[in-house]
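Researcher: Quick test of sequence recovery. Tokens follow.
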């Protein structure tokens, strides 16, 4: 296994080669964080003729934006049914419709910018882990098909081999409007698009803190000097960490959970197609769910799920993911794992994405594992909102999310939460 080697980083083109720039002193906008959110915001701002710098504490993109599974869903973590109960049917409809709008906008963006990231609307199959889950999915299908842009249907257990060669599931749900891409190729395309638009991107430049100078002027203190900026957007999301003062407000409201991924050795296209005849994106209905897919060349399988590790991914997590994979495809018991890595996924208390403003600083974060679509979209929306040019705010624009009690960015409680959900999943399959 290539421990902590990300499959997506093995691309021929260079992932992060940046133009060189002099350190800027005064700018209209400073964006903190150079993932999908930060670059998308940067492009939107630069295309309005404003000066903007994106600063990243490490190499841009090496946070979640090139570590993900590449599934493009614009998914809302909470089902439409549950969301309607909590916030009303109108909110649920708008949130789900915005997910479709955001995904279509991503597809359009890739086409217009000629980003060759193998974006394909493959559809996604979510296997039901119990007959009860199959019933819940069936009710969700009825709800979703009433929301703009959704094309959803159920597949019975006896028909599921047309979708996937496993007997693990009790049937499942297909969402035709979901797809996938190569996350690092998308990132490389986004980066080059940002540079062409005139965004200055600086790596290895952590922002330490932000101070008010006067109305409409901020002093952005970095490890390399101070920038005077009109406005600031924070796009550090699940990589906000506890080490910099700048993350103080966000980190009390956002939980970074670890998710890990394995990629098998080359299995060959024939074998992968035999297991996944329609080459879709896939998942299951567990609380601690797994997500899996063929790699873009269709000759390996990628699977992601929870990680047990805080810092570096270990053999324990790799074994756990391999076990998940062989529960679905027992034939893969002897196949090797070539890659295993992990990254941070950001959750707000409500498990919903957020855009908000606090003390004249704008934030977008908390995509709950569906940021390939949400990050680009909400980065763009945050920039439009900050410039005051948005003709329609995102449904997720509002007051700052609630603080998480007894928490300051170090998610000490996650093992207990995971244990609780693992127990629920265990009970589910034993009923
Ligand atoms: C293992 C894994 C699998 C996933 N799978 C999927 C999937 O299949 N589909 C999907 O839709 N989503 C998935 N996601 C989620 C998705 O990748 C993220 O939501 C998305 O990439 C977030 O982008 P971002 O730009 O907001 O954050 P990031 O890409 O994490 O960027 C944040 C950046 O901020 C920088 N930063 C932090 N602090 C500072 C500072 N003080 N100064 C300067 N820079 C700073 C960091 O270095 C980092 O580069 C997955 C995530 C993980 C980790």
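Model:
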């Amino acid at each position: 296994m290539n421990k902590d080697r990300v499959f997506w980083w093995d691309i021929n083109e260079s992932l992060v080669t940046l133009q060189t720039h002099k350190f800027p002193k005064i700018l209209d906008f400073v964006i903190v964080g150079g993932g999908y959110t930060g670059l998308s915001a940067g492009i939107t701002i630069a295309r309005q003729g404003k000066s903007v710098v994106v600063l990243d504490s490490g190499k841009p993109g090496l946070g979640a934006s090139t570590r993900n599974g590449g599934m493009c869903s614009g998914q809302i973590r909470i089902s439409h049914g549950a969301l309607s109960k909590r916030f009303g049917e109108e909110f649920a409809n708008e949130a789900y419709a915005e997910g479709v709008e955001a995904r279509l906008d991503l597809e359009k963006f890739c086409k217009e910018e000629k980003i060759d990231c193998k974006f394909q609307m493959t559809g996604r199959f979510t296997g039901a882990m119990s007959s009860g889950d199959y019933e819940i999915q069936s009710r969700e299908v009825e709800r979703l098909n009433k929301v703009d842009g959704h094309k959803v249907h159920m597949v019975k257990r006896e028909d599921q081999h047309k979708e996937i060669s496993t007997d693990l599931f009790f049937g499942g749900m297909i969402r035709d409007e979901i797809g996938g891409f190569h996350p690092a190729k998308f990132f490389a395309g986004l980066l080059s698009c940002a540079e062409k638009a005139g965004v200055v991107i600086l790596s290895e430049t952590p922002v330490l803190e932000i101070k008010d100078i006067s109305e409409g002027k901020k002093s952005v203190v970095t490890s390399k000097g101070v920038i005077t900026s009109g406005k600031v957007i924070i796009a550090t999301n699940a990589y906000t960490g506890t080490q910099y003062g700048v993350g103080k407000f966000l980190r009390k409201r956002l939980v970074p959970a670890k998710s890990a991924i394995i990629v098998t050795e080359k299995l060959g296209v024939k074998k992968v197609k035999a297991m996944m005849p329609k080459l879709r994106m896939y998942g299951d209905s567990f609380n601690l769910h797994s997500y899996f897919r063929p790699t873009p060349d269709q000759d390996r399988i990628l699977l992601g799920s929870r990680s047990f590790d805080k810092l570096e991914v270990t053999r324990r997590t790799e074994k756990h993911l391999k076990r998940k994979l062989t529960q679905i495809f027992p034939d893969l018991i002897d196949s090797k794992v070539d890659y295993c890595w992990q990254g941070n996924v950001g959750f707000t208390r409500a498990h919903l994405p957020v855009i908000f403003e606090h003390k004249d600083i704008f934030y977008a974060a908390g995509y709950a594992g569906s940021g390939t679509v949400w990050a680009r979209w909400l980065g763009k929306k945050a920039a439009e909102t900050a410039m005051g040019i948005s003709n329609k705010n995102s449904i997720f624009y509002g007051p700052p999310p609630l603080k998480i009690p007894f928490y300051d960015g170090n998610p000490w409680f996650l093992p207990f939460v995971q244990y609780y959900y693992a127990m629920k999943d265990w009970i589910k399959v034993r009923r």
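The chain is about 30% helix and 25% strand.
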